[in-house]
Amino acid sequence: MGISSLGVGSSILTQDVLDQLRKADDAKYITPITTKITAETKKQDAFKIIDASMKNLIDSIDAIKTQTLYDERKATVVGTSATVTAASNSDIGDFTLGVTQLATKQVEESGLFSAKTETIANGAGSLNLNIDGTDFTIAYDATTTLDGLKDLINDVAGDKVDATIVQMSGTDFRLFISSASTGATQNITVTDSSAQLKDARLTTGLTAVQTGVNAAFTFNGQSLTRTSNNITDLITGLDITLKEVGTSTVAISQDRESFLKKVDSFVEKYNSAITELDKATKTSKDLKDRGAFSAETTIKNMKRTVEDMFATVGGGVGSLSDYGFDIDKSGKMSVNKTTLNSKMDADADNVKAFFSGGTYTKADLSTVTLTGAFAEMSTTIKTYTDSNKILDELESSISETITDLQERKTKATERLDARYEILKKQYAAYDLIISKINSASSMFTQMANAQTAS
User: Fold this and answer.
1) pLDDT in tens, 375-419
2) 188 with 179: CB under 8 angstroms?
């Protein structure tokens, strides 16, 4: 807050003089702190990107080191007679499925009713519905309609049968009772326990429009039957659904698509992390091109650690380069899928052991237990990325430094503010004295001039 009249009396002790003095003091005491704050803030911003990149990298590594990833299976079916899905760790192999007959449901059709609102009985009574050896009692009375009977059957025996009404023509309505399951045991019979039905359209008048039969098929030429078209008890881990008569060949193999996607993700996250580390540690004479951590050892050491992993992991039985991984001159990683697939074709168990740990069989048939290349990477990087580890400590250090600098800047600014508030008041007082002296001098000059004139 300047004194607007400062310098009016003297034209010497002006606000401009104070502003110039304050600018010089700001450059001496405030600017250096501001420069440091800017540098630490740049570090803080760069750290957030690096931290995110490293966490993405460790996530991609942990996804590959998981041993269950190598147990995923894929079913390839050639032919349209069946579909097959394979659970994790299912046996790998090939087989043929020849479908000669699909399993069907038992479907019974009633006699003709003129409307679905037509009543079915003369009085109260009950029906006995038997399916697959299970009896269900369906109670009715003189007001029960065909539509009402359908609802009663579904309410009482809905787990075993499905009842529906089909309008065949304007005055032709039929009740259809279908078994919920397929197979030769799904016979449906309906008897009138009370003899109160108007006629036999719902009992002996039922017509089997479809007979429940078992599925008949061959597995590698051997004839088999099942009550359902969905077969889960043939080979452990396989879910087979028979679709139509015909023959299909089935191949159960390791699901490499899922594995290779995770490999691609690892390569992508590795390159992203290296790119950010390169930027952050770049040295340059030009300040604007210099990395935020160009003079900071923690990030530089972490970069070297990440780069060194490529050559150091493997448990002494090989390296990542043996499996198609490569690092170019710029430090970026790539993977040759042909080489990797060849390794998996040759010995999938050894690939699993090399990447994720386990028993590795050497060329001389001796074995060694490995930690796993990606498990080694995970352990190494987590010394930086885990909670309360090196990166967390660095983040806290940067935040504390910024807080300390901001406090120093605030105190320095307050000291200068106080100093220049005092100077403003002193300048104002000096200016007033000078003004009075100037006024007295002017008066004496006028008196002398007047005396000389007289």
Assistant:
1) 999 999 999 999 999 999 999 999 999 999 999 999 999 999 899
2) yes
Sign of CA dihedral 296, 302, 305, 309: negative
> Mean pLDDT for the chain?
91
The alpha carbon of residue 126 and the mean position of all alpha carbons in its chain are separated, in whole angstroms, by 57
Residue ranges with strand state E in 170-263:
172-182, 188-192, 207-210, 215-219, 222-226, 230-231, 238-242, 246-254
Q: Which class for 390: exposed (0-12), middle (13-18), buried (19 or more C-beta within 10 A)? A: middle
Instruction: Say if residues 212 and 147 touch (Cβ distance below 8 Å).
Output: no
The token pair that represents 49 in the structure block: 């990107």
Burial of 306 (C-beta count, 10 Å sphere; 0-12/13-18/19+): buried
DSSP output for 63-84: HHH-GGGGG-EEEEEESSSEEE
Dist CA 325 CA 19 (whole Å): 64
Tokens of 401: 């430094």
Handedness of CA 330, 331, 335, 339 (dihedral sign): positive
DSSP H or E stretch at residue 350: helix 348-356
The reported pLDDT for the residue numbered 232 is: 96
Local structure of residue 113 (DSSP, 8 states): B
Handedness of CA 337, 342, 347, 348 (dihedral sign): positive
